[in-house]
Amino acid sequence: MAFQLQYPSPFLLLLLLILLIQIMPFPAIAQTQKNIALGTSLTAKDGNCWTSPSGDFAFGFQEIVNHGFILAIWFNKIPERTIVWSANGDNLVKKGSKVELTEDGRLMLKDTSTVAPIWTADAAASGVAYAAMLDTGNFVLVNQDSNNLWESFSQPTDTILPTQTINHGSTLFARRTPSNYSRGRFLFTLETGGDLSLRITNIPLDYVNLLYWPPTGTSYNGFQVIFNQSGSIYLAAQTRSIIYMISDKTVSMEDYYQRATLEYNGVFRHHVYPKSIDSNNVKAEHVAWSSLSFMPSNICTSITWYAGPSACGLNSLCKNDEEGPVCLCPHGYSFVDPSDELKGCRQNFVSQSCDEASSEDLFYFQEMQNTDWPLTYYEHFNNVSDDWCKQNCLNDCFCAALVFKEDACWKKGTPFINGRIDPTLSSKALIKVRENSTDARKHDSSTFKRIEPILLSSSAFLNFFLLFITCFLVLRILNYRKANANMLYPVIQGINLKCFTYTELKQATNGFTEELGRGSFSTVFKGVLASDNGKCVAVKRLDTTVGENDLKFRAEVSSIGRTNHRNLVQLVGFCNERQNRILVYEFMSNGSLESFLFGGSRPSWCKRKEIALGTARGLLYLHELCSSQIIHCDIKPQNILLDDSFTARISDFGVAKLLMMDQTRMATKFRGTKGYAAPEWFKSLPITVKADVYSFGILLLEIVCCRKHYEAKMEHEGQMILVDWAYHCSQQSKLHLLFENNEAKDDIEEMEMYLKIAFWCIQDNPAFRPTMKNVTRMLEGNVEVLTPPSPSSLQVQWK
């Protein structure tokens, strides 16, 4: 029988092809990752790196402030090349140094001046076939079976990334400073027993000195810290169940880069950065990493200890800010190292000597409110006045500062330990500082006691006395003339701002009869200035409790008077007579935006668009362009006025300061209007310019939709709150329900873009809101408006 050749079936050929692919080390994976072959190396110089397939991450060298090069992994597609892992933070290398994946599979870093490697990847076993920089941010050494023999994810420095875990015994070390990647003072660890903790180390040693999170008496025992693909970070048990949620802010990995970093100041923070913004425009738009969550909530008050440098170093003060802790030096002290504020502060004057006679005459006290150095004191007195306490400290050469609270006094010596400034503290600190010979703040009788014998010992005393009398009379004459001049030409020096008398304004307003509007702290009347050719003005009469301090009132009025922008209502003058505090503004003939927007007829989109842009430009000027930053705190349609040509003019700016508000990132009493006020007003969070951005977002929604932010009489309950209804229509592609049928098609497209801008402005997290500069550029069409995330303040969960 003839032999018949049997060809293999197509199925068998497919199996053979798959088998060949499995045993080939390079071609099989080359399409999903960029494999780095054995024998490949990188040299320390600018731009020399190995990138991941998408280009999101890079492994290579970065120069650190001209001090040397660090071998690191960083985000590669954003201008801020944020480092997430480093090999030699404690030992930077020179230009020309090399990292090499040797032929025998070892990854080594060598400096130009040494033979032995500076750093070597400790692979678990031999047999490395190649290396790869993955799109997850993980750099791996891989064998032929595609098993990772070493990976950067298992050797974290100060950062973890999505899909990365922290296992028992793993530790994150904070860097020393923002630009110094050597190990710093703080660590985040999951101990072998399962305890999760944030601790201070004893620099230059790594051993633990103090636990500052979780709070005393709290324990979180777990198996693993997981940073999952949804953006959540949590401590899990061995069963993968959640024991403690570190960050529950779920964010899409497709839209945002994410990282969680133990920062140099000891705060563990979850950051995000938008992916879809064109990197060529990032610097112009000031896009930066935004903070989603952090712990502890206030590191300044979390660290309380009898010894050690605490949160900010010896002799310093820690103040919790919106972006984290800020280290400050008391009056008379300065940073030991301005590039490393955590090293503390040093005294800039000679301390009081115990042998120096009457040395207390050479010192004075600088007062600091809401300030304390708790626990560390060497004497304590009850039922005493602060004057008694000051004198006691002046008589004590060891006393460097006092803390005074409720008739009790604590004496402190240097170095000061664990200092903090916090609005919850009712204590005040009194810092003892040596009087400078050129300092004119303090001249007591002791000065004259020292010169009196010299004057009396010669005829110079008579000459001095005659000279003193002559100067006194001349000054009295000059002050008299100046006072008369101020009465004839009552303005604040340097600006064209008139000082009216109360009688003059009472006559101008016909006895304050024609009321234009009323607010919580003021009433506005129409007036006519007879002294200015019958010019109409708006006269705002503040409550008698506002601005009781004359000097502060005049200072704030002067600040308001110096503002000058076409989208602001100009301040004409003021009255500061006895208890009467009155502001006089230009009169806006077309009333407020409220009556214009919600009146009988629907204004054209063209006019509404101009009003929105004008309002944004006015806010931008207040926030960034005027001589001193002004936070409005009450943006709403009633405070947007319209002039003869219907140009938007912001009113009531600067009044927040007259209401005794502190706008320096301090938590303040609520001053805004409900419905327009940002969430931070109700959470005792710091108030910044981003509060105005939120209010503008609500206002922009009203301008686009031509309806109030809340209307009780609606056909459906879901339409009552404009934010909820507008976002629902946007998500369901039903924006036509928000607009009138007679709106032009081109206008509707532009209105949809304005809605997106509004949704960005009303993000619950202030860090996600754009600045008014960004808002203005988006409204002008100079910047692409990306799709915003859902405002977390929505009250209705749409299905």
UniProtKB/TrEMBL annotation:
Main location: membrane
EC number(s) given by UniProt: 2.7.11.1
CDD domains linked: PAN_AP_plant
Catalysed reactions, as listed in the record: L-threonyl-[protein] + ATP = O-phospho-L-threonyl-[protein] + ADP + H(+); L-seryl-[protein] + ATP = O-phospho-L-seryl-[protein] + ADP + H(+)
Signal peptide: 1-30
The Protein kinase domain, residue ranges: 510-786
TM spans (from-to): 454-478
Location within or outside the cell: Membrane
GO MF annotation terms: ATP binding; carbohydrate binding; protein serine kinase activity; protein serine/threonine kinase activity
Annotated keywords: ATP-binding, Disulfide bond, EGF-like domain, Glycoprotein, Kinase, Lectin, Membrane, Nucleotide-binding, Receptor, Serine/threonine-protein kinase, Signal, Transferase, Transmembrane, Transmembrane helix
Gene3D superfamilies: Bulb-type lectin domain, Phosphorylase Kinase, domain 1, Transferase(Phosphotransferase) domain 1
One Gene Ontology cellular component: membrane
Enzyme class, broadest EC rank: transferase
Highest taxon of source: Eukaryota
Name of the molecule in the record: Receptor-like serine/threonine-protein kinase
Source organism (scientific name): Pyrus ussuriensis x Pyrus communis
